[in-house]
Amino acid sequence: MNIRILHTNDIHSRFEGFGKITSKIRELKNDNTLILDAGDFNDFMRMELQGTSGRAGCSLLSIAGYDAVAVGNNEGFAGLEVLETMASTGLIPFISCNLYRNDMSPVRGLNRSIIADKGGIRFLIIGTTPSYNEFFSLLNMHAADHVEEIRRELEENKGKFDICILLSHSGMREDTELAGQLDGVDIIIGGHSHILMDQAKVINNTIIHQSGSYGEHLGVLDIEVKDGKIVSFREENIKVEDMPMDSGIADELSRQKDIAIEALSRPLYEVDRHIWHDVVEENPLTNLLADALADVIPCDLSIINSGIISSGIMKGVVSNKKLLEISPSPLNPTYMEIKGKYIKEALKQSLQADVCLQDGKGSGFRGRYLGRLHLSHAVVEHDGKEVLRVKLESGELEDEKIYKVSTSDYLQRGTGYTSLANNRNERYNPEYTRDILREYLNKKEFIEKCFTERWVKV
What we know:
The chain has 458 residues and is α/β, with parallel strands linked by helices. 30% of the residues lie in helices and 28% in strands. It has a 6-stranded mixed β-sheet with strand order 4-3-2-1-13-14, with helices on one face. Helix 10 packs across helix 15. The radius of gyration is 24 Å and the shape is elongated.
């Protein structure tokens, strides 16, 4: 019996690319086809997802004919309530055998696995979620050890399946290790690493295949099964750039966008002046976020990069739609402790326009540029090339002194400004920096203060 597996991973809400993938799926599928996604399909930078609590993504997967989707970290980062909403729509099975609530009770609507019958062959399809528990714990969730949970799922379904497929959002390194130490998984459709594989790996009789990211390729794995065993296979990753967008996906995307815009456009409040933004130069909107972070997390100073904001706020009505447009990155306010010399090194880098304009790519980042560093509770004196001194409310910044800093998890990891990675005792807040902006743009004293310069050329 020949079975065709069409698969994707890490679409990250590039739904236009997904529309092209759907066209290719319709061209290639037959009666004995499984259509699977290995997670991070839904990325909540998209208005359609924010305004529908993720239902829009479920609808698109259903229209494309998918059999199951694994819960990636981005599906989890949307929060427990949104994940349970998505998992309970009945449009597409969401699967993860290792994701629980913090008290280890099940996540409502979430499947540990499913069994699908194709051509009389029973496929056990298991999903896994990466162990980002430093963030999941803030959202009342916990990702348990995926190896033990997979082993448990194999044991509990013994005799009920012929072939096991793992939809793994754990990454290539973890998939490779798992294949080497665990018998019983026949195929791993991987994600999280964003690797476009020219050839599948075979480790311990387990086939591992992954299809890049961002809706650019459709993975194909054709397998021949005899007596419940895979005896041969053929793999391929098909670039879909030249495919037309599926009309059903296009129509549904338009419908869901209308629903989302209506939900997100409701006025929150008004601001009485234009709060502008710039990537390279100090600007009041990023200053406001720095001030807000310092107010939310008690600290000696706060540091944030302008690249996580994409534009300014005009005088007038502020809505959730506008906030999502200017601040799409799901980044958490973060506390850390770090020596002054590492702060000063990052500030010196930030004087260079080419640093500010470099690609800001990194975990959780949904903008384009890295951006200038902005501060609160501090003034940087410089000559355009060198940082001469940094004055805090408690005195001048000292190289070897350890300071309490409020920032984002993006900078805490040292993304872009690598010296900032030399920190300790990090703690994360559950809300996003966008949520902080939403609250503090409605505080007049913060709007007035944000126009005060913190970078002074002498």
